[in-house]
UniProtKB/TrEMBL annotation:
Keywords: Methyltransferase, Transferase. Pfam families: Methyltransf_25. It comes from the Bacteria. CDD domains: AdoMet_MTases. It comes from Streptomyces polyasparticus. This is Methyltransferase domain-containing protein. Residues 54-142 form the Methyltransferase domain. One of its GO terms (molecular function) is methyltransferase activity. The keyword Transferase applies. GO terms for biological process: methylation.
Amino acid sequence: MTEPGFLATTRDSYDTISADYAEWAADELAVKPVERSVLACFAELAAGQGPMADVGCGTGRVTAHLAGLGADVFGIDLSPGMLAAARKRHPELRFVEGSMTALDLPDESLGSALAWYSVIHVPDGQLPDVFAEFHRVLKPGGHFLLGFQIGEEPLQLTEALGHTFDLTFHRRTPDAVAERLRDAGFEERMRLVKQRELDGPFPEKTPQGFLIFRKPAAS
């Protein structure tokens, strides 16, 4: 089966910046109390449900944070470079290579999953298949967390951290993402919008969206 083109460009781009990105983002959560609160809420909702997958885990900083909250979590990422950085920084955790378009996991094998700023690289046309894949691997009652930038138009980024690459960031509204999740069979538990924040070490030029949905429990 031919790999979608966006996967190759996303993988190559993150391979290019992986080492420098790992250094740049290492302390990001330490200065973001809203994000830490969302992750703490998710970890508590998911407690006792079974394994948790951080899909699009990048350098593993969120994976490690959730593990510190007691989650039975492992990371999945498309980029070998990002995975190498994750394994170097968090050797006690498990990280595997894979794509959210075709997760190498059995049906209903996860208690929970998150896509923390990772579906942002998935084009609109591929999003229903990706959400269907998350629905497939989650157990009934399992929770799913998404973090993403809010907006109406995509952002094309070709240079950062001293490197050139080709990344598309698909900005979406919470209503649009929620509608796609409901279409995939999920039910909403929580949504939060954080307004843009232009000061500090990690400025945000757009609002940020956080959604927690759940695969309905078996009747």
